[in-house]
Design a protein that fits this description.
- This protein is of the alpha/beta class and 221 residues long.
- It has a single domain (33-220), classed as 3-Layer(aba) Sandwich (Rossmann fold), CATH 3.40.50.
- The chain contains 9 helices and 6 strands.
- It has helices at 16-20, 28-31, 56-65, 79-90, 101-108, 123-129, 133-138, 162-166, 197-208, and strands at 71-75, 115-118, 149-151, 172-174, 185-192, 213-220.
- The radius of gyration is 18 Å and the shape is globular.
- 33% of the residues are buried.
- The model has no long low-confidence stretch (mean pLDDT 90).
């Protein structure tokens, strides 16, 4: 058995969790990388930890756009999470995609009536990286997803300041017939919630094309 995160052999002290949930087992070191967010005390809009009331950012989005995202995030975006995402997303270690499939499966079960839509990469970014980091994780779950959006080429979000992200122009177009979207509930899925601008762009476009409800799920906040 190998750790689904670092890929090291799990030889000694196999726990019951590792035995019965071997599709997402992590070694003791990697288990400590991921800090779960307490949903009871998270912002009901963006999922920000320790903000049980609607946070100031979400109030601003509500004033600007007329809605909040209602985002659910699995983990805190901290040093531990960065130790996972940097080799996976930026170095391209595809073996790391199963690090938290158990938690991801459990979260997606709460959205069974939704269409699952991972945020897309541009064609250029996909060709450079070789995979969509969100789809890579979703492919190991028991749920299917729809590529409802396509993306124009823009500078990577990781290279932009907060102010640049907030000023970003609409990067998405509908991928395929809009009949897929009309009167549907859609769950946008991304790796990290930062300013929320990209998710709100996706939600705005989907609402414009007739979606009934749009929410989001991210791996970290």
């Amino acid at each position: 058995m190998r750790c689904s995160c670092c890929q090291k052999e799990l030889i000694n002290n196999v726990t019951l969790r590792e035995l019965f949930f071997s599709s997402s087992q992590r070694c003791y070191h990697c288990e400590k990388l991921f800090s779960k967010i307490d949903q009871a005390t998270a912002c009901p809009g963006c999922g920000r930890p320790n903000s049980a009331e609607l946070c100031s950012d979400c109030r601003l989005w509500q004033q600007k756009l007329g809605f909040v995202m209602k985002n659910y995030s699995l983990f805190r975006y901290d040093d531990g999470f960065r130790q996972w995402i940097e080799p996976y997303k930026f170095t391209g270690d595809y073996r790391l995609r199963g690090a938290f499939v158990l938690e991801l499966n459990r979260a997606l079960q709460n959205y069974r009536s939704y269409l699952f839509c991972p945020l897309p990469l541009s064609k250029e970014r996909f060709e450079k990286r070789g995979f969509n980091q969100v789809c890579g994780c979703l492919d190991l779950t028991k749920f299917s997803y729809e590529l409802l959006l396509r993306r124009s080429e823009l500078a990577p979000q990781s290279e932009k300041s907060r102010e640049d992200r907030l000023r970003m122009e609409q990067p998405f177009q509908i991928n395929g017939p809009i009949e897929k979207i009309r009167n549907q509930k859609v769950l946008l899925i991304d790796d990290v919630y930062t300013t929320g601008r990209t998710l709100f762009h996706g939600a705005e476009l989907l609402y414009e094309k007739g979606a009934e409800t749009v929410k989001s799920l991210t791996f970290a906040r």
